Amino acid sequence: MRLSIFIFDGLTTLDAIGGYEVLSRIPGMEVEFFAQTKSLIAADTRRLGLLAWKGFADITSTDILYVPGGPGAFALEQDNTVLEKIRALDASSTWTVGICNGVGLLAAAGLLNGRKATTNYFYRERLAARGADVVPTRYQRSDKYVTGAGVSASIDTALFLAREIAGEQVAKTLQLGIEYYPDPPFPERTPADAPVLSKQLVSQFERMGAPAQLKQIAPFKELAALVR
User: Fold this and answer.
1) Per-residue pLDDT tens for 81-106?
2) CB-side exposure of 126: number of CA atoms within 13 Å?
3) Using CB atoms within 10 A of its CB, is residue 184 exposed (0-12), middle (13-18) or buried (19+)?
4) pTM over 0.85
5) Where do the domains of the chain lie, and which CATH numbers do they carry?
6) How many CB atoms lie within 10 A of CB 116?
7) Does residue 222 register a pLDDT over 90?
8) What is the rounded distance in angstroms from the CA atom of residue 152 to the CA atom of residue 198?
9) Could you tell me how far CA 178 lies from the centroid of its own chain?
10) Could you tell me which of 76, 78, 102, 91 has the C-alpha nearest to residue 18?
11) Are 18 and 50 in contact (CB under 8 A)?
């Protein structure tokens, strides 16, 4: 089985890597990271890069299409080349996964109309406007579509999918392998429980801070030429 993880400039790294750490360890899983072109991809912080060692031209089908989110995904909602590739790979996939506002790319591609789906706390209204039936859960399955909420929910989503693919024993073993037993030092357990000030700050960052951050030039940008 092959897992194809789409990465793009301005992705939120844990959206992709949380799922990778679980799904890549399923016995027999093959993994590839791809982008529009082979390149060193800068994350939203502009201080971390992921290598896309395959481009769109190198991938015509997959078993698991995995689409993370991040502030860089907003512009891609209008990118027909990206949306067409998502639709093409979805046509061959056994599973299609979206995390955070990466779920919005699946919706923009027309894949979630009328389907139950979850997403990042601050993206729910936008996802609903694209035709999805939004539910406030950490992960959600609708047929072959598996969607996850924000960032760290990529791990929960991947463990759920691991169980669907390989069974509960394998999934529980993977959970132990990555020692994923969350116990945060705060009483809040859902986004709705978060302090008002925290909600305001994150919302402000989503609107203003993240777009400004994406304008920064990654210090390793010159290394991207070596990839090609």
Assistant:
1) 999 999 999 999 999 999 999 999 99
2) 15
3) exposed
4) yes
5) 2-227 (3.40.50.880)
6) 16
7) no
8) 17
9) 19
10) 102
11) no
